UniProtKB/TrEMBL annotation, chain A:
This is ABC transmembrane type-1 domain-containing protein. Belongs to the binding-protein-dependent transport system permease family. InterPro entries: MetI-like (IPR000515), MetI-like_sf (IPR035906). Residues 81-292 form the ABC transmembrane type-1 domain. One of its GO terms (cellular component) is plasma membrane. SUPFAM superfamilies: MetI-like. GO terms for biological process: transmembrane transport. It comes from Candidatus Competibacter denitrificans Run_A_D11. It is a multi-pass membrane protein. The chain crosses the membrane at residues 25-47, 84-106, 118-135, 165-188, 223-244, 275-293.
TrEMBL record, chain B:
Pfam families: BPD_transp_1. It is found in: Cell membrane. Keywords: Cell membrane, Membrane, Transmembrane, Transmembrane helix, Transport. This is ABC-type transport system permease protein. GO terms for biological process: transmembrane transport. It is a multi-pass membrane protein. Gene3D superfamilies: MetI-like (1.10.3720.10).
TrEMBL record, chain C:
It comes from the Bacteria. It comes from Candidatus Competibacter denitrificans Run_A_D11. This is Bifunctional: maltose transport protein (ABC superfamily, atp_bind) (N-terminal) phenotypic repressor of mal operon (C-terminal). CDD domains: ABC_MalK_N. One of its GO terms (molecular function) is ABC-type maltose transporter activity. Keywords: ATP-binding, Cell inner membrane, Cell membrane, Membrane, Nucleotide-binding, Sugar transport, Transport. One of its GO terms (cellular component) is maltose transport complex. The lineage of its organism: Bacteria, Pseudomonadati, Pseudomonadota, Gammaproteobacteria, Candidatus Competibacteraceae. It holds the Pfam family OB_MalK. InterPro entries: AAA+_ATPase, ABC_transporter-like_ATP-bd, ABC_transporter-like_CS, ABC_transpr_MalK-like, ABC_transpr_MalK/UgpC-like, Mo/tungstate-bd_C_term_dom, NA-bd_OB-fold, OB_MalK-like. Gene3D superfamilies: 2.40.50.100, Nucleic acid-binding proteins (2.40.50.140), P-loop containing nucleotide triphosphate hydrolases (3.40.50.300). PROSITE patterns: ABC_TRANSPORTER_1 (PS00211), ABC_TRANSPORTER_2 (PS50893). Residues 4-234 form the ABC transporter domain.
Amino acid sequence: MTTLAPAPSAALPAKTNREVDTRPLLWPSVIVLFLWMIVPLAMTLYFSVIRYNLLNPALTGFAGLENYSFLFDDPTLWTSLWNTLVLVGSVLIITVVFGTLFAVLYNQEFPGRNIARLLVIAPFFVMPTVSALVWKNMMMHPVYGLIASLQSMVGLTPTDWFTDYPMFSVIVIVAWQWVPFAFLILLTAIQSLDSEQKEAARIDGAGPLAMFFYITLPHLSRAISVVIMIETIFLLTIFAEIYVTTSGGPGTATTNLAWLIYSVGLLQFDVGYASAGGIIAVILANVVAFFLVRTVSRNLQQG
Amino acid sequence: MSMPSTFQKPPRWIPVLAWVIAILIFFPIFWMALTSFKTETEAISTPPSLFFVPTMENYTDVIDRSNYARFVWNSIAVSFGSTLLALAFAIPAAYAMAFFPTKRTPSTLLWMLSTKMMPPVGVLIPMYLLFKTLGLLDTVTGLLIIYTLINLPIVVWMLYTYFKDVPGEILEAGRVDGANPMQELFLLLLPLAVPGIASTGLLSVILSWNEAFWSLNLTSSQGAPLTAFIASFSSPQGLFWAKLSAASLMAIAPILVVGWMSQRQLVSGLTFGAVK
Amino acid sequence: MAEVVLRNIKKSFGPVDIIKGVDIDINDKEFVVFVGPSGCGKSTLLRMIAGLESISDGELSIDGKRVNDLSPADRGIAMVFQTYALYPHMTVRDNMGFSLKLAKVPKAEIDRKVNEAARILKLDPLMDRKPKALSGGQRQRVAIGRAIVRNPKVFLFDEPLSNLDAALRVQMRIEIARMHSDFNATMIYVTHDQVEAMTMADKIVVLQGGVVEQVGSPLELYHHPANRFVAGFIGSPTMNFIDATVKAVAPEGVTVELPGGDNLTVLVVPGATKAGDKLTLGVRPEHLQEGSGDGKLTGTALVVERLGGATYAYVKLDNGTMITAEVDGNSHIRVNDPIQLGVRSQTCHLFGSDGLALAQSTRHPLADVGRGKGGH
Ligand SMILES: Nc1ncnc2c1ncn2[C@@H]1O[C@H](COP(=O)(O)OP(=O)(O)OP(=O)(O)O)[C@@H](O)[C@H]1O
Ligand SMILES: [Mg+2]
C-alpha cells in the first residue's frame, strides 16, 4: 500500500488550472506601482536631507535635519498647516452636511427629479481650473462679477471677495465642487436603504425627523466616513483652485501645504527645503490613508 | 390630534426647494454657457446683460486663434492614452486576483490602493527634476505616464470588483470546454465584463481629463492639456471672458455628458467599491 | 468503457481537510448519485473529478488512466452546473459549439453535432437566442446540450435541477434518466434531494464530513443502512430512533425492551451484543401503524398532518421520546388523542452505541436489484 519512497510525480507541483502561475499577469502592475511609490518618495527623502538649490549650485552637501529645522522655524509652515486644516475642515463639514441633506431631499419624489439631480452633480465633472475661473471672474469679481452686480442693485458696496475674504472664497469654490461628490455618493447609499425598513419605522410611529436620525443617518454612516476619507485625501493637496485664483495670497492667507511646497520648490527652487515640506505632506496623508485602508479592508472581508 | 396617514404626500415646498437649490448650484455653469454666446463687451457689462443677440464668434475665435486644437488633442491623447495603458496593465492583474486569488491577494489590493494615497505635492519636486532630466517636461508622453500611474490603482480596483461579479462557474464551464487561461480571459471574461470595463475606462478618462495638479506643474504649452490652457486665462483681468467661457464650455461639455450618463458606476469606482 | 475509480482521494483547503480519503468504484455506464448534507464535500469531490479542483492526495483514474494531472478538457468529461453557467454573450448554438470550436473541429462537423444535440433536446427553435431569452428549463436543456456535444465518457452533474420548480424538476429528472439509457455514458450526479437520488441512481454514495458513509443501491441503503447516519438520511420522513435495552440474545435475533415494557425481537445478527446492552431501535414512520404489531408503543399525538393519502402523526411517547408515524389517511386520530402504534419486527433496525447497524439476518429481496435492464 504505502511506500516510503515518494512517487516520482509527487515531486512535480500539481498542475491543474487552479494553480496557474499568475505572476506574469500580476507583476507588471505591481512593479510599476512599486516603482512609482518608492522612487520619487526616496528622492524626496534624499533631497530633504541635502543642500540643494537650483539657483545656487555652489550650495551642496549633506544637510542632516537642517532643512527640517529651517522649515519648523518658518512661520509660513505653521500658517500653511493651519490654512490646510481650515480649508479641509470647512469643506468637509460643508460637503457632508449639505451632501446628506441634499441626498435626503433629492430622494423624495417630485416632478423632474432626475434632471434636478443631474444639475446638482454637474459641478463635480467640471475641471478645477474652469470652476475656479468661473467663480473668480464671473461670480466673485468685485467689478464685473454677478454678486457685485446684485450687491450694487440693492445699494450695497460690492465686496472684493478674494482680497477681503480670500480663504472663504477658496472654500466656496472647493465646496461647490465637492458637495456634488458627497451628494452623489450619499444619494446612492440612501437608495440602498430598504424600503420595508422605512415602512416598519413608520408603522412604529417614526416622524420625518426620527426617521432621519434613527434610520437614515445610521444607514449612511459608513458612506459618510468613506466620503470624508476620500475627500480628505484630495483636499489635503488642493492646488489648482489656489493657483488660478489667489496664488496663495494675499500674503500667505491662502497658502496651504501644497502651495507652500510648490512656491518654495518650483518658484524659489530650494529643492531641499521643499522636499522637507513634501515629507510632511506624505506623513499627513498617510495618517488619513491608514483609516481609509482600514475601512476599505473591512469592506473587502465582508464582500 | 391629526390622523397620521400612511400615504404621506411629500409637502408642497419640497419640489420648490429642490428645484431652487438645483438651479442655484448649476447656475455658474449656466452663466458661463450664456457668457460664451455674448460679445466681449456684453460679457463684462454692468449690470450683466440678460438679453443679447447670441453670437458664435467666441467659438470660432477660440478654435481659430489660440492653438485650441492642440490643447484639445493633448487632453484627448493624455486621458484616452493613459486610460488604455492603465487598462492594459490592470486587466491581467485584476483577472489574476479575481480568479486565481492567493493568500496575498487582499493585501496586494490594499497596497495598490494605498499608493493612491500618496499626496502629489510630496513627490512633486523629484518628479519635476526627473522629468527635466529625461526631457519629459511639457510633453504629452510625460503626462500620459503620470496619469497612467495615478489611475492604475483605481482601475485595478474597479475591474477587480466587476470581475468578482462574473460567476466563476462560467469560466469553469469554459475550462471544461477546453479553454486555456488566455482564452478564458479573451473569449469569456472580457466580453462579459464589457460594461464594467467601459465604466472603468470612463472614470479614468474623466479623472485624467480634469486632473489639474500635474498638468499645471509639468506642462506649459507644447504638452499642455485643456486644464492648463484654461488656467492661462487667469492672468489678464477682465479680458477675453467670453472666449474663456467658450473654451471652458467646450472643455467641460463632453465630460459632463459622460459623467451624467455613468454616475451610478462612478460611485462604486470613486469609493473603491465601498458604496454601490 | 469508462470506469471512474477514486483511490484514497483527499482534499484540503489550506489547513482544513475537506475530503478525508474517499474510495469509490464507479462502473461503466453506471448512474451514481452523491448525496449528503450541505457542506459535506459533494461538490468538491465532483469538481475534483472534473479537474476544476486539484487533488491533494490519492489517485483518480478515468477509463483506466490516471488523470490527476490532466486539465478538465482532457479528461473526457462534461459537466452541467447548478447555475447552468451558460455563456451569456453567446447564442445557444455558440454555447453548445464552444468546446468543439476550441478543439478546432471543422465547422461543418460542429454544425452537425450541435444540430444533432439540439434535435435530441428539442432546442431547434431556440438556437439563435441568447441565454437571457430562455426559461429556466430551456437553459437547463442548453447546459445539457453543451455537455452532450462533447460526447464525453463521463457526465458530471452538480445539483442540476435545484433551480427549477417542482413540476419541471420531475420532467427533467425523467429526461436525464432517459438520456442515461440513450447515451450509454457513465454519469455522476450530485444532489441533496433524496427523491432524485432514490429514483435515478444505480448506486448511491452517501457522504458526510468528507468521508463515505455507505455505497449501495437505493433499496440497499433503505433496507440495510450501515449506520445511524445513513438510516436517518435516507427515507422521508426521517427514521425514528428509540432507546432500547437488550433483554435476550438468540442466533436469529436480538430481543429488546420497548418503552412501555413490550418486548420485541428484531431479526438481526447479534454479533457481540449481550443482554443488558443499551441499543437504539430504528423504525421508519411508514412502518408504524395504528393498533398493534409484534410490539407496541403508546403515547399522545401532538401534531396531526393530514396529506389525504396518508396522515403524519407526531407522537410523544409515554417516556418522552418524540416520534413520527405515517398512519392511514382515513385515521380518525386527533390532536391530544392517546395513540397506540404497532411495530413489526422485520422492519426494525438496531444500532450500537457506536452508531453502526447490526446486520439484518436476511437480505431484502430487492436490495440488490438494479434500476434498469442493465445487469450489474
Ligand atoms: N475554495 C474553498 N476554500 C475553502 N473551503 C472550501 C472551498 N470550497 C469548499 N470549501 C469547503 O468545503 C466544504 C465542502 O464544500 P462543498 O461545496 O463540496 O459542499 P457540498 O457538499 O457541495 O454542499 P452543498 O450541498 O451545500 O452544495 C464546505 O465546508 C466548504 O466550506
Ligand atoms: Mg454543492
